[in-house]
């Protein structure tokens, strides 16, 4: 009786593995069934990037924005903090005037790779 149960479990396991393998192969073959005249499929870059690559890209974009802010005439970026996530930049911290807040938001929006700016800067009050 023990041998019969073990053989049955083994057969079921093999059958399940075969079915899963066949399904995977079917999906794989279906993805490559395009002919040479059809245009290549569009790929979503966000899906293909690893979390590590995305994090590095976010850091690089934030650094680029900080660099532009530091080069912007009439802006004191000492208390401006930049966070970037998938092209969306958030500015936090403080400036000494409304004009500088607007200037920082406009400068950040012009940086290549920035899709939107969330300007959360406030006015720094003297102590």
UniProtKB/TrEMBL annotation:
Residues 57-125 form the BON domain. It holds the Pfam family BON. The keyword Chloroplast does not apply. Keywords: Signal. Residues 1-33 form the signal peptide. It comes from Paraburkholderia youngii. This is BON domain-containing protein.
């Amino acid at each position: 009786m023990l041998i019969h149960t073990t053989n049955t479990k083994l057969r079921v396991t093999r059958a399940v593995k075969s079915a899963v393998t066949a399904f995977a192969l079917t999906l794989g073959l279906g993805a490559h069934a395009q002919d040479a005249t059809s245009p290549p499929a569009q790929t979503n870059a966000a899906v293909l990037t690893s979390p590590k690559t995305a994090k590095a890209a976010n850091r690089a974009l934030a650094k680029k924005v900080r660099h532009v802010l530091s080069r912007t005439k009439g802006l004191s970026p000492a208390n401006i903090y930049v966070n970037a996530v998938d092209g969306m930049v958030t500015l936090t911290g403080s400036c000494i005037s409304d004009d500088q807040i607007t200037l920082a938001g406009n400068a950040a929006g012009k940086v290549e790779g920035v899709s939107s700016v969330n300007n959360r800067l406030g006015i720094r009050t003297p102590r």
